[in-house]
Amino acid sequence: MALATKTKKKTDDKPAEKGGIQSLERASMLLDLVASAGPNGIPLTELSERSGLHNSTAFHLIRTLENIGFLTKKDDSKRYLVGSKIFMLAAGAMNENALLLEGTPVLSALSDTTGEATHLAVRSNAEIVLVARMAAKGMLQMSERTGAVRPAHATAIGKLLLSKCDDAELEFLLADMDLRAFTENTITTKAKLRRELTDISKIDVAHDRCELDPDVRCIAVPVYDFAGRCVAAMGVSGPVWRMNDEVVIKRTEELKEAALALSKALGASS
What we know:
The protein is built from ten helices and ten strands. The chain is α+β, with helices and mostly antiparallel strands and 270 residues long. It has two domains: 2-82, Arc Repressor Mutant, subunit A (Orthogonal Bundle), CATH 1.10.10.10; 91-265, 2-Layer Sandwich (Beta-Lactamase), CATH 3.30.450. The strands form two sheets. Strands 4, 5, 6, 7, 8, 9 and 10 form a seven-stranded antiparallel sheet that branches. The protein has a three-stranded antiparallel sheet with strand order 1-3-2. A hairpin with a 2-residue loop joins strand 4 and strand 5. The radius of gyration is 23 Å and the shape is elongated.
């Protein structure tokens, strides 16, 4: 106990680096500790001990960080997690790595729940690129950009992402899009694709009814960021003999819950 008190006093009395502001340095240290604590968060007492700050000093800094959105409490507990404001500040650096980091545990849980393959994809112009895919047996298959492109018109993830385009951008993309048939169910005309995209935009759910593979059905829903922008599509796919209409309805609800969890992790308000 005497040693801990000595350590706290030493850290509290330590001057800031030349030209720096001590309170900002301490706040940064607390944010680092919270970020490294993982999904279960960290309580105030442990933050105080690990930072070497007095309880009162740590409390006031943490309350300030919480008030401005940099920290948040886990549920109704007294354990602290990184807040959504951090994701807002990092939004400019949002990329596939960030989606992979936040999306992997969500995909894993969704695959465990459904027993089916789950995937996360982004759009790059007219290309639909898989960021990650969790196989039905729970094995993560990370996909590089090269060779991981899926046809937009023949996949649920592709159609979902196309449905988020405004009219001008969609027409630009459709102008050069090859609507080739992969199965007898593939949409091959721009008029039919436009109609389906309009329907998708109304309900935020897209379907691949054996359009890419004759034996596979897929569903997809959007993932949003803090600004309400659709930054990715999350999907579930399975063999047609398991993914009957009744099962698809159930999987859709499970998929929506998972996408909402990821959206919240990216700073979305709801």
